[in-house]
Design a protein that fits this description.
The complex is a heterodimer.
Chain A (H helix, E strand, L loop, with lengths): L3 E4 L2 E5 L4 E7 L7 E6 L6 E6 L5 E4 L2 E6 L4 E6 L8 E7 L9 E2 L3 E6 L1
Parallel strand pairs in A: 2-11
Antiparallel strand pairs in A: 1-3, 3-8, 4-5, 4-9, 6-7, 7-8, 9-10, 9-11
Chain B lengths: L3 E4 L2 E4 L5 E7 L5 E8 L3 E8 L6 E2 L6 E5 L5 E5 L8 E8 L6 E2 L3 E5 L1
Parallel strand pairs in B: 2-11
Antiparallel strand pairs in B: 1-3, 3-8, 4-5, 4-9, 5-6, 7-8, 9-10, 9-11
The chains are: A mainly beta, B mainly beta.
């Protein structure tokens, strides 16, 4: 049972465009939603995270939008740059307790000039 | 500040051989995790340790064992390696309920 579904699998965006990656979750107990960025040959690194008490969180060019009723959250990358080319993973977990993160299957983003 | 350190970075094993992947963190995190990453499959949890002295199975534990040696160290053992265990293995750590810090990975090939 895949608890976090991520789409699309791959994405090609022109430099300067907006990249949008979507995730949907099933477990209503989830209350922590991070996004990770992974460059080839490296481990994933935390990019930005949101908790369900807010509908949007912005850090620089990266924004998480969260829709609690639809059980969906998305990552928007504004003014996408070739250096943003990487694999992005969404994840979810219960904040309380020590349950592990559940990851989506990842989106490979390519930003072309 | 080293973060999460994994050794070795690369390894080639023959089918049936055993090996231990080492992981250490210096951030005083309570929880540690082992994931494997395969193309198109994302990150799949093998085992985790919510706190020192405890370990639990994840999504794909078969063929693996773990040891939480102390608060800093969490090792993953392959007793009898199989070609299906060819993968990239990531160790991660976190404070309770927080985000993960990942290591740089171990690329394992079983021939």
């Amino acid at each position: 049972q895949q608890q976090v579904k991520q789409s699309p699998q791959s994405l090609i965006v022109q430099k300067g465009g907006i990249s949008i990656i979507n995730c949907a979750y099933e477990n209503t107990a989830f209350d922590y939603f991070p996004w990770y960025q992974q460059f080839p040959g490296k481990g994933p690194a935390l990019l930005i995270a949101i908790r369900p008490d807010v509908s949007e969180k912005k850090e620089g060019r990266f924004t998480i939008s969260f829709n609690k009723s639809a059980k969906q959250f998305s990552l928007h990358i504004m003014d996408s740059q070739p250096g943003d080319s990487a694999t992005y993973f969404c994840a979810a977990r219960r904040h309380s307790g020590n349950t592990p993160l559940v990851f989506g299957k990842g989106t490979r983003l390519s930003v072309i000039a | 500040n080293a973060g999460v350190t994994q050794t070795p970075k690369f390894q080639v094993l023959k089918t049936g051989q055993s090996m231990t992947l080492q992981c250490a963190q210096d951030m005083n995190h309570n929880s540690m995790y082992w994931y494997r990453q395969d193309p198109g499959m994302g990150l799949r949890l093998i085992y985790y340790s919510a706190s020192e002295g405890t370990t639990d199975k994840g999504e794909v534990p078969n063929g693996y064992n773990v040891s939480r040696l102390n608060k800093r160290e969490f090792s993953l053992r392959l007793e009898s390696a199989a070609p299906s265990q060819t993968s990239v293995y990531f160790c991660a750590s976190s404070l309770q309920g927080g985000g993960y810090t990942f290591g740089s990975g171990t690329r394992l090939t079983v021939v």
